């Protein structure tokens, strides 16, 4: 939605109501006045086919019409909490063929390390200002771009020289993820993370098989202490208080 899409959405909704089709409206928070119009169309329509369905996606918004929420069956999609859940979600998108795409032995551990870095930078957001001075919107696109860079780097790598760690750290810390970072102290923190030092109890599994990675991820702790993210143990108190307030 947005940018003049209301005309097309209105036409599709009216047609689908008569034919029994399905309609998906994405990001309706960009067009809140149209949400009120949707309510009117649903309430005032003389005939709606039983097979008609309308799906709506939106971000949380204080001005979203309560009436539309009350009429709908609501689903929420939240990112997984914790390192184990986040890593499992990342590796669910991989296949064994993806892990075998190159014979370079550095590929499987590098992929795992980048996935772990992605998890850390995302998980620190839940600690508020203790995690990052500025709340950054790190997302799956950052992870995908980082993985693509690693693939390109390995494809162009001279086997005699090996991986250029200076290049990898710079691209991840200054470009892929660092491109979103505006605070100087956050930049220093991200640069530290790209040195790829794991907290005790966490490591890169010595395997090349997808099943081996998944089994190791499943063995990770259910609960992650703040020290895993480089924070003081008391940071968990702040997180629990903020979670209770948000709830």
From TrEMBL:
One of its GO terms (biological process) is microtubule-based movement. Signal peptide: none annotated. One of its GO terms (molecular function) is dynein light intermediate chain binding. Residues 107-235 form the Dynein heavy chain AAA lid domain. One of its GO terms (cellular component) is dynein complex. Residues 1-76 form the Dynein heavy chain region D6 P-loop domain. This is Dynein heavy chain AAA lid domain-containing protein.
């Amino acid at each position: 939605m947005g940018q003049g899409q209301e005309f097309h959405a209105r036409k599709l909704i009216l047609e689908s109501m008569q034919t029994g089709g399905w309609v998906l409206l994405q990001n309706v928070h960009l067009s809140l006045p149209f949400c009120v119009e949707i309510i009117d169309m649903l309430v005032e329509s003389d005939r709606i086919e039983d097979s008609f369905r309308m799906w709506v996606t939106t971000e949380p918004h204080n001005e979203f019409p309560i009436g539309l929420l009350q009429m709908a069956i609501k689903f929420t999609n939240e990112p997984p909490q914790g390192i184990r859940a986040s890593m499992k979600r990342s590796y669910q998108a991989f296949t064994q063929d993806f892990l075998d795409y190159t014979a370079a032995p550095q590929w499987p551990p590098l992929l795992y390390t980048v996935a772990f870095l992605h998890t850390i930078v995302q998980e620190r957001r839940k600690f508020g200002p203790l995690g990052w001075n500025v709340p950054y919107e790190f997302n799956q696109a950052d992870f995908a771009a980082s993985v693509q860079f690693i693939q390109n780097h390995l494809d162009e790598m001279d086997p005699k020289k090996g991986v250029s760690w200076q290049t990898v750290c710079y691209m991840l810390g200054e470009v892929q993820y660092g491109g979103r970072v505006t605070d100087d102290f956050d930049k220093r923190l991200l640069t530290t993370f790209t040195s790829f030092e794991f907290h005790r109890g966490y490591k890169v599994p010595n395997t090349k098989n997808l099943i081996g990675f998944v089994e190791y991820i499943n063995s990770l702790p259910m609960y992650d202490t703040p020290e895993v993210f480089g924070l003081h143990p008391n940071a968990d108190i702040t997180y629990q208080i903020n979670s209770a307030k948000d709830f």
